[in-house]
Design goal:
By secondary structure, this protein is an alpha/beta fold. Helix content is 43%, strand content 17%. It contains eleven helices and ten strands. It is globular and about 50 Å long. Bound molecules: D-glutamic acid.
C-alpha cells in the first residue's frame, strides 16, 4: 500500500555500507529527477563473512524501514544480500525489487570474446555459486573462476588507502585470474570504488552492475508508469547509516563529488 503520489515516492537503495553508492551514482545519472533513500549498514559490515540467516535478518530489517518510508521500488545494491536474500525480499513485499547480480552476468556474457569470465566477490557470494549458476544457466560453455576476496570490502569500508596492505592484498586476489581470462565481474558493489587500482593489474573487460541495474530500474518504473514526472525540481535524497555519520559523510562526498549531503543515523 503506497501513500502520496506514487510516482513521487522514493526509490530505496541499500547495501551493507558505502558500496551501493556506486549503483546510486549511476541511478542519479539515468534517473536524476527521482527521490531517493539510501541505507548503508556500515555498523554490521562486512556482510560477506556472515551466515545466510544473519544477512537475511539484517536486510529484511532495512527493507522494512524503506517500505515504512513508502518507497516505490527497492534496489538491492549489494551482491552478498542479493545472493542471500533476494527471493525472500521479493516474496515479502509488493513493490518492484531489483538486484545487481543478474545485471553483471548479462553484461559479462556480452563482453567476453573467448568465453572466460572471472568473478571477484565476497566469500559469502562465492560460497553460494550464484554467479557461476546464473552464467552457466545462460551459457554452459563459459570457463568461470570465482575468487573470494575476504579483505577487500573491509579495507574499502575502512578507507582504501589507509592500510599499507591494500595493494599487496589486491594483487594477490587478482593474481588468481587465469592468464587467458578476458572479462572480470566486480561481484561486490564496493569494488568499483577502487577500479583505477584494479585496472593496473587487469587489462580486459571489467564489469560492474551499476549501469545495467539503473537501466533496469528505469525500464520497470517506465512500464509501471511511476517515473517521477516532477522534473523541474531536483531530487530529494535521504541518507541513513547505522555506523559513524562523519565517516559515512566523507565517503559519500568523495564518491558523489558533492558537499550537500545530509545523513541520519539509523538503528536496526
Ligand atoms: N557491497 C557488498 C556486495 O556487493 C559488500 C558485502 C559485504 O559487506 O561484505 O557484496
Amino acid at each position: 500500500m503506497l501513500f502520496c503520489n506514487e510516482s513521487e515516492n522514493s526509490i530505496g537503495i541499500f547495501d551493507s555500507g558505502i558500496g551501493g553508492m556506486t549503483v546510486f551514482k549511476e541511478m542519479l545519472k539515468i534517473l536524476p529527477y527521482e527521490n531517493y533513500i539510501y541505507v548503508g549498514d556500515s555498523k554490521n559490515s562486512p556482510y560477506g563473512d556472515r551466515t545466510t540467516d544473519d544477512i537475511k535478518n539484517l536486510s529484511l530489517k532495512i527493507v522494512d524501514f524503506l517500505v515504512s518510508k513508502n518507497c516505490k521500488m527497492i534496489i538491492i545494491a549489494c551482491n552478498t544480500i542479493a545472493a542471500a536474500a533476494f527471493e525472500d525480499i521479493k516474496l515479502k513485499y509488493d513493490i518492484p525489487v531489483i538486484e545487481v547480480v543478474s545485471n553483471s552476468v548479462n553484461t559479462a556474457l556480452s563482453c567476453t570474446k573467448n568465453n572466460t569470465i572471472s568473478v571477484v566477490a565476497t566469500p559469502f557470494t562465492v560460497s553460494t555459486n550464484i554467479f557461476a549458476n546464473k552464467i552457466r544457466a545462460i551459457n554452459a560453455n563459459i570457463d568461470i573462476k570465482q575468487i573470494p576476496c575476504k579483505n577487500l570490502c573491509p579495507m574499502i569500508e575502512e578507507g582504501w588507502r589507509s592500510s599499507e596492505k591494500h595493494i599487496p592484498a589486491l594483487k594477490e586476489y587478482l593474481s588468481e585470474i587465469p592468464n587467458n581470462c578476458d572479462t572480470i565481474i566486480l561481484g561486490c558493489t564496493h569494488y568499483p570504488i577502487i577500479i583505477e587500482d584494479i585496472k593496473k593489474y587487469f587489462s580486459g573487460f571489467i564489469v560492474d552492475s551499476a549501469v545495467e541495474t539503473s537501466k533496469e530500474a528505469f525500464s520497470i518504473l517506465n512500464k509501471s508508469n511511476i517515473l517521477n514526472s516532477k522534473n523541474n525540481t531536483s531530487s530529494n535524497i535521504e541518507f541513513y547509516t547505522t555506523g559513524d555519520i562523519n565517516k559515512f559523510r566523507q565517503f559519500t562526498e568523495n564518491i558523489l563529488s558533492t558537499e550537500r549531503i545530509f545523513i541520519k543515523k539509523l538503528s536496526l
